[in-house]
Amino acid sequence: MVRQVQEGLSREAAKRLRFVPGLVYVEEGAVRRQSPEQREQTLAQMETLLQATGFPYHLIHLEEALELPPSILQPGPERAGTSGPSYKEAVDSFIQQQRQDGDSGTSQPTPSTPARPAGPPAAPRLPAAARTQELLRAFEAAATATAREELLEMLRTHLIVQTARDRGYAKVMMGESLTRVAVKLLTNLSLGRGAFLAVDTGFTDRRHGDVMVVRPMRDYTAKEIAFYNFYFSVPTVIVPPLFTKRREKLSIHQLVERFLLGLQEEFPSTISTVYRTGEKLSPEPAKAHSEFHRCLLCLCGLDTYGEEELALEPTLIFEEPAAGVESKAAYIPLLCYSCRLTFKELGPLATLPPYMRAEGQRRICRAQMEQRPGVQ
Amino acid sequence: MAAPVSLQVEFGGGAELLFDGVKKHQVTLPCQPEPWDIRNLLKWIKQNLLKERPELFLQGESVRPGILVLINEADWELMGELDYKLQDQDNVLFISTLHGG
């Protein structure tokens, strides 16, 4: 994807792209069973690669999710862009800006929190061991590989969106291929996220408000991308997969991948058919959901009204320590159907990142206050 | 009778993790009655190169779905897949497009 953006931005491009990109890499070695030395090596390789692009870049560690603000679980205010300058005006002012910069190539994103300039590589630093341990606790406490994968995806997305928000980026491009989108489609269906397929796998994902997530690579199969990378010598960095415990069953994500890829061997139109069916889905028009109608974790509109009819009751039994202590059960009304299932399979509240607990507690308290109007 | 065949066997996209992290292997396949083809090569790789967890690389006679095979930089689907007869100095590249596990 980065190579494609580079090509699109280059002077020779027929329809030259007109935006200022930055790159972000989330280093996840802690949960991929890498030793500190291996993590340093991955970081060094990644830094070399990112520097070579000439774009501003940000290397962050998954451990930084422990420091996310609770506000990440709220959509940000929509940008003034909708009532602001037209697209044509924006392009014109961009071109003028480029001319002023002497067409030097990379200009900084608008709010100039200067990203790391392309200088000599600083020695990559790993987070403190205590942070790594705290992060690992959350992942190790997960009862299933499926919940662990979902947790990883949540933390990574929140980190990336927060990074974008902090630095004034309006959009985030994710690199999911057609293959990965098709796998995600069926996986999410199996996880109970049928209501949100369009948002989870579509081209645009607007649930975070001010930061829009887009998936420009969703038209290209993994095979096409692999061949492209090979023929055009695109540098890559490989990391091991998310850790699993001994004798643990495979995650739904892994099962669906195996299933689809296996079927594809005999029926070569499988994956593209799944993808094209998914393409027909469109997100429902954005409603102004109050926080009481949005899922705490995935920010999608809650789909759990009339839950007595749904088969939710049997899944909501918890082993709770004592009443009065922060209980997992109190979080359930804040979550959509599939996040409830994931949440149930994650560890005790104390193992979850602080921002989730803080925002959850806040909403629980507000909901309680709303139910007792006389109390101030 | 097949003469010994010298090959460059390469792994990428994470497949190298199953081969001690080594991406490029120069191998010489010994003399044997049947001619060397990809099918036999895979058996040979299983016995001689694969360090762990063969089920992550092979499935039945073939490679696991999701692993691409390039013979002399061309998709093996154009070359006959498992039936392609290896020639001296061929290059066989295995690229994994799988996402873990």
Automatic annotation (TrEMBL), chain A:
<keyword id="KW-0963">Cytoplasm</keyword>
<comment type="pathway">
    <text>tRNA modification; 5-methoxycarbonylmethyl-2-thiouridine-tRNA biosynthesis.</text>
</comment>
<dbReference type="Pfam" id="PF10288">
    <property type="entry name" value="CTU2"/>
</dbReference>
<keyword id="KW-0819">tRNA processing</keyword>
<dbReference type="GO" id="GO:0000049">
    <property type="term" value="F:tRNA binding"/>
</dbReference>
<comment type="function">
    <text>Plays a central role in 2-thiolation of mcm(5)S(2)U at tRNA wobble positions of tRNA(Lys), tRNA(Glu) and tRNA(Gln). May act by forming a heterodimer with CTU1/ATPBD3 that ligates sulfur from thiocarboxylated URM1 onto the uridine of tRNAs at wobble position.</text>
</comment>
<feature type="compositionally biased region" description="Polar residues">
    <location>
        <begin position="96"/>
        <end position="108"/>
    </location>
</feature>
<dbReference type="GO" id="GO:0002143">
    <property type="term" value="P:tRNA wobble position uridine thiolation"/>
</dbReference>
<dbReference type="GO" id="GO:0032447">
    <property type="term" value="P:protein urmylation"/>
</dbReference>
<protein>
    <recommendedName>
        <fullName>Cytoplasmic tRNA 2-thiolation protein 2</fullName>
    </recommendedName>
</protein>
<dbReference type="GO" id="GO:0005829">
    <property type="term" value="C:cytosol"/>
</dbReference>
<dbReference type="GO" id="GO:0016779">
    <property type="term" value="F:nucleotidyltransferase activity"/>
</dbReference>
<feature type="region of interest" description="Disordered">
    <location>
        <begin position="96"/>
        <end position="126"/>
    </location>
</feature>
<dbReference type="GO" id="GO:0016783">
    <property type="term" value="F:sulfurtransferase activity"/>
</dbReference>
<dbReference type="InterPro" id="IPR019407">
    <property type="entry name" value="CTU2"/>
</dbReference>
<dbReference type="InterPro" id="IPR014729">
    <property type="entry name" value="Rossmann-like_a/b/a_fold"/>
</dbReference>
<comment type="similarity">
    <text>Belongs to the CTU2/NCS2 family.</text>
</comment>
<feature type="compositionally biased region" description="Pro residues">
    <location>
        <begin position="111"/>
        <end position="124"/>
    </location>
</feature>
UniProtKB/TrEMBL annotation, chain B:
<keyword id="KW-0833">Ubl conjugation pathway</keyword>
<dbReference type="Pfam" id="PF09138">
    <property type="entry name" value="Urm1"/>
</dbReference>
<dbReference type="InterPro" id="IPR012675">
    <property type="entry name" value="Beta-grasp_dom_sf"/>
</dbReference>
<keyword id="KW-0819">tRNA processing</keyword>
<keyword id="KW-1017">Isopeptide bond</keyword>
<dbReference type="InterPro" id="IPR016155">
    <property type="entry name" value="Mopterin_synth/thiamin_S_b"/>
</dbReference>
<dbReference type="GO" id="GO:0002098">
    <property type="term" value="P:tRNA wobble uridine modification"/>
</dbReference>
<dbReference type="InterPro" id="IPR015221">
    <property type="entry name" value="Urm1"/>
</dbReference>
<feature type="cross-link" description="Glycyl lysine isopeptide (Gly-Lys) (interchain with K-? in acceptor proteins)">
    <location>
        <position position="101"/>
    </location>
</feature>
<dbReference type="GO" id="GO:0005829">
    <property type="term" value="C:cytosol"/>
</dbReference>
<comment type="pathway">
    <text>tRNA modification; 5-methoxycarbonylmethyl-2-thiouridine-tRNA biosynthesis.</text>
</comment>
<feature type="modified residue" description="1-thioglycine">
    <location>
        <position position="101"/>
    </location>
</feature>
<dbReference type="GO" id="GO:0034227">
    <property type="term" value="P:tRNA thio-modification"/>
</dbReference>
<comment type="similarity">
    <text>Belongs to the URM1 family.</text>
</comment>
<keyword id="KW-0963">Cytoplasm</keyword>
<comment type="function">
    <text>Acts as a sulfur carrier required for 2-thiolation of mcm(5)S(2)U at tRNA wobble positions of cytosolic tRNA(Lys), tRNA(Glu) and tRNA(Gln). Serves as sulfur donor in tRNA 2-thiolation reaction by being thiocarboxylated (-COSH) at its C-terminus by MOCS3. The sulfur is then transferred to tRNA to form 2-thiolation of mcm(5)S(2)U. Also acts as a ubiquitin-like protein (UBL) that is covalently conjugated via an isopeptide bond to lysine residues of target proteins.</text>
</comment>
<dbReference type="GO" id="GO:0032447">
    <property type="term" value="P:protein urmylation"/>
</dbReference>
<protein>
    <recommendedName>
        <fullName>Ubiquitin-related modifier 1</fullName>
    </recommendedName>
</protein>
